[in-house]
Amino acid sequence: MKYFFILTFSVFFTTFGFAQNDQLWKGYFSYTSIKDLASSPNRIYAASENSIFSKNIATNELKTVNTIDGLPSENISGIYHTNTFNKTLIGYESGLMVVINDADGSILKVVDILNKQLPPNIKKINHFMEFESIVYISCDFGIVQYNLSTLQFGDTYFIGDNGTEIIISQTAVFDGKIYAATRDYGIRRADINNPNLNDFSQWTTITGNGWAGIEAFGDDLFMVTNTGELKRYQNGAFSNIAILPEPPKDMRSEGSRLLVTTATHVFIYNENYALERNLQAVEIDVVNLRFTCAAIVGNGLYLGTESNGVYATGFTAGGAFQNVTPNGPVRNNIFAITATTENLWAAYGDYTADYNPYPLDYYGVSKFSPNGWLNIPYETIHDAIGRDVVSMVRVTANPADENQVFFSSFHSGLLKFQNDEPVALYNQTNTTNGPEGPPGDATYRVDGAAFDQSGNLWVTNSIVRNGLKVLRAGGGWQSFDLQGLYDNVLKLNIGRLVIDKNGTKWMPTRDDGLIAFNENGNIGKSIKSGPDTGNLPIDNVRVATIDNRNQLWIGTTTGLRVLSSVDSFSGDTQMTTRPIVIQEIIDGQPVNIELMSGQFITDIVVDGGNNKWIGTADAGVFHFSSNGEDVLHIFNSSNSPLPSNSINDIEINKTTGEVFFATSKGLVSYKGTAISASDDLKNVLVYPNPVRPEYTGTVKITGLTDKATIKITDIEGSLVYEVVSEGGSIEWDTRAFGKYNVASGVYMIFISTQDGMLTTVKKVMIVR
C-alpha cells in the first residue's frame, strides 16, 4: 500500500497539466438541489451542491459554473453577489471560499477560513452580509471580515462567552450597530465602528435562546427563532409578527419586501410589514416539493427547492410557475450508467458495500441524448407499472435494439423500457423461474445483466439458490442452480456479470469470490482467495472485465488480479489469477510493487486500445496501458475536474472514445482517444493541429485500423516516433521516442494497415 502511493505521487506532475485542459472534459451536473440564492438587478444566482448557475432575466441566458470551470468539488453552503464589485462569493461547508470575478469569469480560491487552527467541523460558512465594502461572513465558529476592495481577510470575531466559538446564523447592520443571530446563544450586538470588535467583551447579548436569521428591513430589525417565531425589534423592544408553521430555512430583505422561507411556505411581507402573500409548495404541481430559500429579481420571485431546482413566478397568487433550472440529470449521485452509440442512461438507486439496499431509493431514471436530458420520474414508472420499482442499480441496453433498455432493481426485480417508456416488471409474481426473493422476503434483488451473442439476457439474482437467470430472446425465463459454488445462500450477494466469447458467465460475489458458470454441461467453478483456490487477495469481488485479449481483469475490495485467459475455465486445474507487479526505483533501489494493492476497486473498463480504466471507492480513476505496466493518467478531485474520488461507475462510448465517470458528486467525462478500430483509413484525424506552445497534452490520431503502423518523421524524413496501434487511435507525447521534445516544425505522419494494403499520410505542425 505504501509503495503504491509512491507510484501515484511520481506521476502526479505529468498528469496534472493534461487533466487541466478543459477542452478534454465535459460536465453533466445536476442543479436541482438548491442550497442558496443570490440576486443582482438583472440576474438570479443559484448554488447547488457543488456547482452554480445564473440566469439573465432580460435575455434568459443561462450560465453554469462547475468543476470543469475550476470550482472545487466540495459542498456549497452559501452564495452572495456584490453589485458594487461585480463579484460572486461562494461559501463551503469546509470553510473554503471562492470569489468569481463576473467581468472575466476568473476564479479565486480563498483558504484563510479553511486553514484556521480550528476543528474542521465548525468552519462552515452560513451567510454573507455586505456593509461599506466589507463582507461579514457568518460561520460555525464566529464572524470573519473580508474586504472586497483588497480581496483580503480582516479580523475574526469569536463572540461567545469568554471568546468561545459559537455558531453564527446571520448578521445585519442596523442603526450603527452590527447584530449577530446565534444558533444557541441569543442575539448579540456591537458598535459597527468599534475598532475592537475582535474583543468578545465589546459584544452584548440583547436576548437569549436560538435564532435562525436576522435582517434589517425598512426602519426596523427583523429576526426569527429556530422554531419559527418571527419578531420585530424596535426601540429596544421586541414585538411578535407571526408564528410560522415550521422552522425557518431562510430570511432576507429584497427591496421593499421581506421574504421568510420554510420547507413548504414562502411568506412575503410588504414595506408596511403586512403579509402580502403566503406562497405554498402545494401550489406547484410537484410531489413533496420542499423550499430552501427565495429571492427577488425585478418583478419576479425565484424559489429554491431541495431537489427540484429553481422556480420563477410572479407576486400575485394564481400565476404560473416556470422551472428555470439548467437541463441535467435528476441528481449528482449517479450509481450506474450505460453508454450506447447515441445515448447515456443513468440510474440512481444504490446499495452499501455489503449489498444492503436499505433505505430504499425512490428515484426515477435519466437518459442523455443529442436532445439533452430526459428525466423519467419515479411516479411515472410507478403509474405505468402499477407498483413500486425502487433502488434501480444497473442499466443494460440491448445491443440489437438501442431503444430497449433494462433496469436492474435490487429490491423489485427487472424493469424493461421500450422507446423511453416502462413496459414490464419481471419478478416471481409474473414469470416462471424469473427473479425471485429469499423465503419469506418480498424483495427481488437483481444486479447487473448482460446479453449473450444469441440475444438472451442474463441476470444475477441475490440471496436465492437459483442465482443465475436468463430471459430468452424468444421469451420465457430459465433459472440455474448455483448450489456448491457458495457457502451460505443467505449471504449470496452477486454483482454484475460479464459473458465471455465461450458463453461462460463470470459473476462477482461478496463472500464467495468470482463464480463462473456455463450452461453447456451445467459446469460451475469459482476463483477465491488463497494460493490453492485462485489467489485472489480477498473473496469480496466487485467487478470482472474481459479485455481485448480475452484476459479477465478482476477488481476486489483490496486489490487487482488478472486471469491470463478466459479459456482456462475449460481446463482441469484450478483457475489461478496473478497480480500485476512492476518495478520502481525507490531510494536508489529497485522495488517490486503490486499494482492497485489495497485499493477498493469499483469498476474496470477496457477502451478501444485495450487500455484499462479503473475506478476506486476513494482514490479516483487510474488509466493503465493494456498490460497494466504503464500509468497513463491518474485523475482525482485535486488534479482534475473529477468532482469526487468516489467512483460509482465508468462507461466508454466506443464510437467517440468519450469516457464517462459517475461519481458520488456528479457525472463528468474525459475525451479519451482509444476508440474502436475502423475498417479503413478514410477518417483519420490528427488533433490538436497545430500544437500551440500553451498546450500541454498529447497529439491524438484517431480513425485507425487495428494494428496499423504509424511512423512520424520530421520534414527531412528523420524518424522521431513509431508505434503499432491497438484499436482505433494512438497518442503521441511530441517527444522523440520519449526522450526529448521535438523542435518546432511540420511533422509527417505515415500510416499503413497491418497488411500494407491501405496507406495515408497526414501532417501536424508543432509550435514551441
Considering the chains and any ligands shown, give keywords for the structure.
eight-stranded antiparallel sheet; Immunoglobulin-like; 3% helix; globular; disordered N terminus
How does this model look, in words?
The chain is mainly β. The chain has a domain at 685-766: Immunoglobulin-like, CATH 2.60.40. Strands 34, 35, 36, 37, 38, 39, 40 and 41 form an eight-stranded antiparallel β-sheet that branches. A four-stranded antiparallel β-sheet has the order 1-57-56-55, with no helix packed on it. It has a four-stranded antiparallel β-sheet with strand order 2-3-4-5, with no helix packed on it. It comes from Flavobacterium pallidum. Residues 44-204 form the PorZ N-terminal beta-propeller domain. Keywords: Signal. Pfam families: PorZ_N_b_propeller.
